[in-house]
Fold each of these.
Amino acid sequence: MPTTNVTAIERLLDIYEAFQASQRPLSLTEVAELAGLPKSTCHAIVGTLIARGYLYSLTRPRALYPTRRMFDVTRDIVEKDPFVERITPVLERLRDTSRETVILGKRQGNAVVYLQVVESAHSIRYSARPGEIKPLHSSSIGKAMLGCMKDPELQAWLHDRPLQGVTRATLTEPPALLADIQQGRRLGYFQTRGESVDDVWAMAASLVLNKETFAIAVAGPKHRMEGAMAECARLLVASCSSILRHSLAR
């Protein structure tokens, strides 16, 4: 039963992501092809979505398209988020002072999930979306999460899994990554230099709110970040301290 449920959810998400990728009405055949589903399976899911008001059909051309219902449902959920909504104004101020993209993330298993992304106004910038998943070992937020682990736990984690190279700069040897994390602990923030995305440098610091550990990152292209790392680090650490002060005052 668990496997069936997971497969059904994946198929539903595949259908929505097919519309996201195409950004146009799609026929049932096109939805099935783009989502990689048998047409009969796709027909059953689409029928349920139409009945629940999440899709509507067009006759000319004969096609389907999502209604606003999913948007409204998710918007209402996001607006009541216990952490992201409260932290976003601080993230926006950090974006404005650093002039680079700011990300809020949290560990999910052996990866990081982006919870909020406030993009830089620069035309050349690091771009991402909430919900993106990044490896722990190659992202600055991931390193901040690893930095929160006790040494025996961290060493066991490093010993138990291969560190895949995301870019040519990714640290794939456990001793090198361990040394990098230890340096981040001493500095109070953790850095990546093209280890997750080529030519993107980033830094992250962790903070604990209501016994939940998060991390905030500042990320941008190497040509701007290289000379601004110290100032961005100062702004980042100050922002984390501000969030913690306001949290304690509540």
Amino acid sequence: MKVNQFPDRIITVNNQNYLYFGGTSYLGLPTHPDFQNIVINNIRQWGTAYGSSRSANIQLTAYENGEQFLARFIKSEAALTVSSGMLAGKLVIEALTASRNTFFHFPNTHPALKAPNSEAVFIENQLNPRLLDSVTEKITILADAVPSFQIYPIDLTVLNSIPSHKEITLVIDESHSLGILGTNGCGLYSTIEFPNIKRKIKVASLGKAFGLTGGVIASDSNFIEEIYQLDTFVSSAGMNAAFVQTMADAESIYISQHQKLKANLQYINTILKTNNNSIFNPDYPVIYPTKKDLIKLLESNNIIVTNFEYPTDFKILNRIVITANHEKKDLDKIITLLNEYQI
């Protein structure tokens, strides 16, 4: 389906209006008038793009302002913005590869965190024996905070079973939890505390809940400095400076939209009947329909949801996405259909 405007809560397809419950604009920011005004004002100050290296002799204070906000918001020592969430992941993998880390990945880890020769954390539902052997080494565990097709944060307690002679670095992709989970939407990073994790690193796309094209890496100051010195980072243009400054200026909007999103989820929790047709967590803005026919029913009632083949496991991704911009009448319509649907 091709549309000629941003797909917010209502989109027009072939001159017909549909309710839209798809995409990743969890906080509804791309169409938020006050948020747009901040972006526009910052574009007037910082231009539409800045193609120079972040290591050049001219340093834009927009980056300092935005990255200090992100570090404080995420509750990390430091944060660094880059042009995309995908680049954030690739830079982290490059830095850790240079440090001779051995990589292990949880199931359904995003392609941004693909590492050469990475091994599965689990083999036949058991912890990989390589994680339990007597070899003293640096290991990196790669994981999505909320994997595709799931509605709850990943369970990391299995890391407690890894012996102490394995020096663990945890890299967690929070593209679908930043702005959603945690205090005011800060994500999960600050809550991950395991005694055998020596370093934790967060990567995330900012083009989802945060509404701006770019990515972030958050960790301790020493690791962020390592990234800053990478040839790939030095030779790359940064995230749009106007967008980085916008994050520093829009903190109150992030918080208020997060509150609206939580209110919508709590409302759904009061009206959605427990059944086998949909999977829902009142703390997470995604409902997974379990029946393919349900997607057709929704479309016949002028509701469009996310539907495409996802690369991590090559199956069709059907998602009903709730945003801060959805109104109660929107929620009533879709939840009524979910409640009434029967095979």
Amino acid sequence: MEFITKFAEGFMKLFQTGAETFISWMTGIVPVVLILMVFMNTIIAFLGEKRVTKIAQISAKNPFTRYLILPFLAAFMLGNPMSFTLGRFLPEYYKPSYFASLAQFCHTSNGIFPHINPGELFVWLGIAQGIDQLGLNSMELAVRYLLVGLVMNFVSGWVTDFTTAFVCKQQGVQLSKTVKIVE
């Protein structure tokens, strides 16, 4: 009987812990993401969806702007995870590549721009502490990490373009490389 009671208590503790975690999200990250979404949608409303879509069209025209400039601006201005929403304005064909590039950028920029991905700041701080203990400059590492990250983000985006093309051909799917302007 005692075993059943302990099992039931442990089982309920699992759900209580889940509920506590859920409430911490509701008072932590969820309001921040919600306010960022309102802010982004307000900017889009002021600029006009037509103009924002036009910017996305221009960005989508070459890999440099698509996988270096747009992900950098999105991550710097909106942070992780909100920066991914800017990809909604890109043509369907380029969305997987944008995601691949941006997902890496949100990690490789933490040393210089910790606001982009504060949830993983502890990783960078752990590395920086080790570098500092060796008597080395952690900012030099942060700059190198950012620069290598930018190159690798670009490569990741472009390679994903080829992967998308291969999968589309294999599956017989036709994805648009242009965005329809909203009237």
